[in-house]
Amino acid sequence: MRAGRPLLAAVAALLVGYTLSISLSGYFVFFAVSAVTAALALLGLGIVTGSAGMIALCQLTFAAVGAWVVSLFNVMEAPGGFIVWLIAGGIAAGAVGILVGLPALRLRGVNLAVVTLGFAAAADVTLQQIQFPGSKDGIPVERPDAFSDDREFFFFSVIVLVVCALGVFWLQRSRWGASWKSVAFSERGTAAVGQSVRTAKLTAFAVSAALAGISGGLLAGQVQLPYASSFTPIQSLALYVLAVMSGTQLIDMAVFGGIMWVLVPELLKRFGIPQDWGFVIFGALGVQALTSGTNLGEELRAAWWTRRGKGTHDGGASPASPSPAPSSSAPAGITRGERPAGGLALAVDHLTVQFGALKALDDVSVEVPAGTVMGLIGPNGAGKSTFVDAISGFLPRATGTMRLGGTHLNGLSPTHRARLGLRRTFQQDRVPPSLTVGAYVRFVARRHVSDAELADVLGFFGCPPAGTRLSSADIGTRRLIEVAANVAAKPSLLVLDEPAAGLSHEEHVALGERLRTLPSTYGMSVVLIEHDLDLVRAVCSQLTVLDFGRVLASGPQDEVLANPAVIKAYMGETEML
Ligand SMILES: Nc1ncnc2c1ncn2[C@@H]1O[C@H](COP(=O)(O)OP(=O)(O)OP(=O)(O)O)[C@@H](O)[C@H]1O
């Protein structure tokens, strides 16, 4: 059913396109092709901006690359005809997209905006000089034989849009799509689940630019003699604003945006107002969208879900409620105790982290026995989160040695460490709200997770069903989902940084029970950072106490909690057992 829905929508779109192609007057057929080409470029912007959260102000420059390649192949009478040239234009634009995306690996926000706008301006000047191949000699771009007149070419452009939209639909639901949404929300969170931030950003730029290239190639076929004036930086800017305003990561909103792109200037013309005022209208709507932090597509969908009174995509699930603590039996599909107990899950020697004059960690040596839950405790500022950042690769300047099982971690990136089996959660929310629970768990797991396995791991932690939108879950529930997703990844070591924050007392207790059984149920070792000593006592067989960046005591729970130095420094001299 679910796989069939987009195909049904595609068939319906083709039928509408065909009907329009035979019924619209000649004047409107031209506008209709323009709306389709704009929708394609907006679909691309929806990926790079809407999904991946990067500013790209050169979308029509990528379109110009596609148009240029089509014009060149036309002049060269390259084999394959228009359709092959169109694909080549898309590939060329995608390649240029990767080049332009390289600065995005280091730049963000306004800096990235300046770079992409600068690229658009430079390309504009170049295009004005060199012109499109064939334009000086007036060699028109040859359309496909079966789609040579304007009506037929409109239907052809609808077919291209539908094919691209189907591709985007599936890409958005693929690992790439999840990585775009994740990187938009948190680069650290993305790297921590073993996803390369570089790949996420570059694929977003490449796919987005390729779609723009195809859009430009179509435009070349539409006007047959393309000119630089169709691809100016100011138009790219207006297109970006339109994408932000309508939320074109949603396919229907890209089509809506495409229609707006031609409709607003046309309406202005009819009222005798200069068409350039269209940019002002788009600008005002864009400012409204940016300041309100939402867009038309999301608002329409939010209204739809509110009317239906549901927080889920696929029906009727309520957010997580405290569920009884689990038995220690393993959920179906997750194998029990794959790693033998014994040996060390993590061995850290002489770890030192310095922030300016402050030694946040000072010669810290910690061992986590395999198959145990080790509590890492200490007062605020003791260095617990710094320890997690250091072992998970986010503090490359940390000195000392770190081994996961028998593997040295020093010098490895966070992504690499995560792929080796070291997973961590964060104190701050790093769960991308634009995904569903199921899509997020599968993204974090980095392996095939069957529906039954997914339901089991979510049930084990008392999380909402897979179809629930993460944006509808409260912060405590999102933390639970983050833990469940990282458990589904089956790491050898799972480090949880205050996972109980934001949970109610009952949820706290239930979570403690679940965490205690993780080594026996899922065969992983756990490091738990937690301030709640009741939880620590209930869950951790081993403890390490940090104070002012140094290890105060480490070993079995009862020994550590009875250590006078721990009682004195960590608890004050009050009775704690
Ligand atoms: N990026 C940073 N730059 C400078 N100082 C930092 C940085 N990160 C942490 N610190 C300092 O390092 C020390 C250890 O901080 P850390 O966050 O690791 O403590 P913590 O034990 O996790 O505390 P909490 O329980 O409050 O989370 C603190 O003094 C903190 O101010």
Automatic annotation (TrEMBL):
Localisation: Cell membrane
Alphabetical UniProt keywords: ATP-binding, Cell membrane, Membrane, Nucleotide-binding, Transmembrane, Transmembrane helix, Transport
Matches recorded under SMART domains: AAA (SM00382)
Matching InterPro entries: AAA+_ATPase, ABC_AA/LPS_Transport, ABC_transp_permease, ABC_transporter-like_ATP-bd, BCA_ABC_TP_C, LivM-like, P-loop_NTPase
Highest rank taxon of the organism: Bacteria
Region (Disordered): 309-336
ABC transporter domain location: 346-573
Keyword Nucleotide-binding part of the UniProt annotation: yes
Membrane-crossing segments per the record: 29-48, 55-76, 82-105, 112-133, 153-171, 202-225, 237-264
Pfam families with a match to the protein in the record: ABC_tran (PF00005), BCA_ABC_TP_C (PF12399), BPD_transp_2 (PF02653)
CDD domains per the UniProt record, alphabetical: TM_PBP1_LivM_like (cd06581)
Membrane topology of the entry: Multi-pass membrane protein
Main location group: membrane
GO MF term set: ATP binding
Protein name: ATP-binding cassette domain-containing protein
UniProt lineage: Bacteria, Bacillati, Actinomycetota, Actinomycetes, Micrococcales
